[in-house]
Amino acid sequence: MRDKFLNLFHKVYNLKNKIAFFPAIMGIGGALFAYIMMFLENRGISKYILDFLPELVINNTETARVILTTFIAGLISIMVFSFSMVMILLNQASSNFSPRLLPGLISNRRHQIILGVYLFTIIYCIFILVFIEPSGKKYQLPGFSVLISIIFMVYSLAAFIYFIHSISQEIQINNILLSIFTSSENKLKKIIEKEKKINATKPDTENWTSYNAKCSGYFNTISTKTLLKLSKENNIKIEIVSNKGAYCNESDILFKIDKKVDENIIERIYTNFNFSKGELIDNNYLLAFKQITEVAVKSMSPGINDPGTAINAIDYLSQLLILRVQKQDIDLVEEDNEILLVLNSINFNDLLYNVMAPLRIYCAHDIIIVRKLLALLKNLKTNAIKTEYKNSIDSEINLLLTDAKREIANESDIKKLEELGINS
After folding, report:
1. How many domains in the chain?
2. For residue 7, what pLDDT band results from cuts at 50, 70 and 90?
3. Which residues span the domain enclosing 121?
4. What are the pLDDT digits (tens) for 339-359?
5. Whether 155 and 189 share a structural domain
6. Is 134 a residue whose pLDDT tops 70?
């Protein structure tokens, strides 16, 4: 039962990042609220308020219908315009910056909720309009429900004004980079703080029993709390071999266990892994390095030629890499001073190479960008905690200088770069 609940949780967790998730839920909420108001109308709420505060109740059938019809038509127009603006934002981000930014922009909660507010109000107004009957001596118009629709309409207009402000901010690359950086920075800091509390070393897992992935996809999330509980209950140790955020094939080793266990326990372990066809920074901080690097590379393409954006992206990469050199290449989870879980991550050498390789290829011709990259590596080397990290940084400095010498013809520029590289 618990495993089925975990599977359902993972599916809902993935659905929440879809652009239609919150609008659909709020639209259903609009229909339910309309039925609640009709229940109250049948209990005489409009008649009761009319006796005490008649100015709050609309008591004319034609007026009520005109108001509701106008609201429905106007909100549909606003909703179409807002959705079009979201599509323009996504198209511009894809063409000018990187298609990899789209999942993060689509999952923007504020825009989803604003579209949900429109849908909530539209559906509510439609249901109230349907409930209005022809005038009769004993019939009481649902005037209070119409008043509520006016309040919702005012709130929708306020949401539309906020949406215009938000979309104008979201479309700016500086804010996109800041959002990516902040999300990744927060996750990295939490991981580093947890790592400082662990003094144990990684156990030898070479002879542990291996188990392959059952499906292909991006390894997004894992329930470490449940796995830790399974480890304690069954007196086993688990190593997650696949890197979080990496694409797993069915033939790849997913995890290892230090001893033979029942098939039922193996199946329970499998249920704690979540695979998908997309990636989000909320699930994996490493994606930020990939996204920011792609923004920098795209900005230096001949069609865009925006060195300023590349410099901003390199600044954010510098801060994230400084955080990364403060952590180990693996994550250990312990209980009672005993390591029960080992979670592998991409090692620093590969991460730095994946960041620097495309930047070297596309930016080696620009003396300003090369100097910026050398400054990044110099600062990174100062903050590195391990000797192998420093060796990787030295290797990247040499590779960057080699590519720059090939692309830059001016000997004076090359001399300045060499001096900066030697001092790194």
Report:
1. 2
2. low
3. 12-171
4. 777 777 788 888 899 999 999
5. no
6. no
- Residue 210 pLDDT: 84
Of 210, 275, 243, 195, give the one whose Cα is nearest residue 13: 275
To the nearest 10 degrees (0 to 180), the angle between helices 173-196 and 286-299 is 150
Strands 273-276 and 238-240: unpaired
On the question of pLDDT at 232 being above 60, the answer is yes
187 plus 61 within the same structural domain: no
Over residues 285-307, the mean pLDDT reads 83
Assess whether 89 and 151 both reside in one domain. Answer: yes
User: What pLDDT score was predicted for residue 111?
Assistant: 82
Q: Is 5 helix (H, G, I), strand (E, B) or coil?
A: helix
My answer on whether 294 and 407 are in the same domain is: yes
